[in-house]
Amino acid sequence: MGAAGARGRWLRVFRRVEQSDLRLVCFPHAGGNANVFQPWARLLDGATDLLAVCYPGRQDRLLEPCVDDMDVLADRIIEVLLPYLDRPLAFFGHSMGASVAYEVAWRLESRHGFAPSMLFVSGHGAPHVSRVELDPDLADDEYLLGRIGALGEVDPVLLRSPKLRELIMPALRADLRMLYRYLPRDPEKVRTPITAYLGTDDPTCTTATVNAWAELTTGGFALETFPGDHFYLVPEQERLLAAVTARLR
Fold first, then answer.
1. DSSP state, 120?
2. 238 vs 186, which has greater pLDDT?
3. Contact, 151 vs 208, CB < 8 A?
4. Who wins on pLDDT, 13 or 6?
5. Strands (DSSP E) along 54-183, which ranges?
6. Are strands 11-15 and 48-53 parallel, antiparallel or unpaired?
7. What's residue 186's pLDDT?
8. Is the confidence at residue 52, as pLDDT, over 60?
9. Which is the catalytic residue, given 29, 94, 124, 230?
10. 26 vs 9, 23, 36, 46, CA distance in Å?
């Protein structure tokens, strides 16, 4: 498969503006897929393209092996992003996607001298102070799905349907395994400014762990909160996109 085909597998383009001046690249949560960001296309304004990363093992990549190593995943995403460095990029990562976005941003800076305009991290504590305590390989499907359901706004059909659960479990386990093994205790700082978003009732992180993202940038840090749980970005979608758009300006 050629380079263009690889980009098509890894990146879903939900909004393309002629002569855009910025590309917003979004990184899904553990077990999630690129389509969670598709509704954002109608809420963005200005000359901003919207792209989302499609990890292996989901959607039309269902038969591809999942990636359970952060270094491998970030390196592969870097490869497909290189042709997009002709314009400014901003990253938005939710939950696991926040750590993936940070790792990609750091690699772009250290290896290619390219600093994204903004790194938005959502629903996730800074990686050097947060970790997944449970080895997913020691838990059964029911337990893992119960833990996910307790986080808040998720699709109830997904949790009830055995067929859908069977499809999502390999990706979810791989993502949780990657987070369990991901222990950047001495992470590098990026030049990219970081803006963090947090649901006030998110059980997965605290204001203190989210504020720790400030230790990973020399470009400035801000924290904004929204009412809601770990998946606050679903009911608060319009307010969140208004905040993101204001920062991008």
1. E
2. 238
3. no
4. 13
5. 89-94, 118-122
6. antiparallel
7. 78
8. yes
9. 230
10. 15, 10, 10, 17
Q: What burial letters (b/e) apply to 9-34, b meaning 16+ CB within 10 Å?
A: ebbbebbeeeebebbbbbbbbbbbbb
Q: How far is CA 198 from the centre of its chain?
A: 14
Q: Are 53 and 25 in contact (CB under 8 A)?
A: yes
Q: Which of 70, 54, 52 is nearest to 62 (CA)?
A: 54
Strands (E), 57-105: 89-94
- CA distances 198 to 65, 144, 240, Å, are 31, 23, 10
Closest CA to 24 of 225, 245, 194: 245
Rounded distance between C-alpha atoms, residue 209 and residue 213, angstroms: 8
pLDDT level of residue 133 (50, 70, 90 thresholds) = confident
- Compute the distance between CA of residue 130 and CA of residue 132 in angstroms, rounded to an integer: 7
| Cβ contacts of 161 within 8 Å, gap of 6 or more | none
The question of whether 230 is a catalytic residue gets the answer yes
pLDDT more than 70, % of the chain = 94
The answer to whether the Cα torsion of 200, 203, 206, 210 is positive or negative is negative
> Does residue 47 surpass a pLDDT of 70?
yes
Non-local CB neighbours of 42 within 8 Å, separated by 6+ positions = none
Which of 29, 95, 99, 122 is catalytic? The answer is: 95
Q: Which two tokens stand for residue 58?
A: 């989901």
